[in-house]
């Protein structure tokens, strides 16, 4: 008996859909027909940096938008092609449309955004405004 059992493509897709359905109720990041990429966000005082994992996605298939005070990363990852001679043991990668809405702090300057994509990681740098430091106001 093998450690792995043979799973048909339909069984793997059903397993993934069930997992994503329950993940939605317990903190998952799949909404409707979209999956959401994992991100890291950091602030060094001068700029905000967002790194998004988008493995296997071409740069041309990524859209980056700012709406109000939200950074929106969206696009589509390629659908895996079925190989009839292989047997699938695990189906964990995500395919299809993706979207991530990232609320931005008020002190960023959304007119000063730079983005780069390399090795499946999207890096977005957003400069912070200089005039957002707290100011002491004297009362007369």
From TrEMBL:
Residues 30-140 form the SHSP domain. CDD domains: ACD_sHsps-like. Pfam families: HSP20. It comes from the Eukaryota. Keywords: Stress response. Belongs to the small heat shock protein (HSP20) family. This is Heat shock protein Hsp20. The lineage of its organism: Eukaryota, Fungi, Fungi incertae sedis, Zoopagomycota, Entomophthoromycotina.
């Amino acid at each position: 008996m093998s450690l792995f059992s043979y799973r048909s493509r339909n069984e793997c897709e059903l397993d993934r859909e069930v997992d994503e359905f329950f993940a939605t109720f317990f903190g998952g990041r799949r909404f409707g027909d979209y999956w959401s990429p994992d991100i890291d966000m950091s602030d060094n005082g001068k700029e905000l940096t967002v790194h998004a994992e988008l493995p296997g996605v071409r740069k041309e298939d990524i859209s980056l938008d700012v709406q109000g005070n939200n950074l929106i990363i969206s696009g589509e990852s390629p659908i895996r092609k079925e190989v009839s001679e292989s047997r699938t043991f695990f189906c964990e990668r995500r395919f299809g449309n993706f979207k991530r809405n990232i609320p931005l702090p008020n002190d960023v300057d959304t007119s000063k955004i730079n983005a780069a994509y390399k090795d499946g990681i999207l890096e977005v740098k957003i400069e912070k405004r200089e005039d957002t430091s707290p100011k002491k106001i004297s009362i007369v």
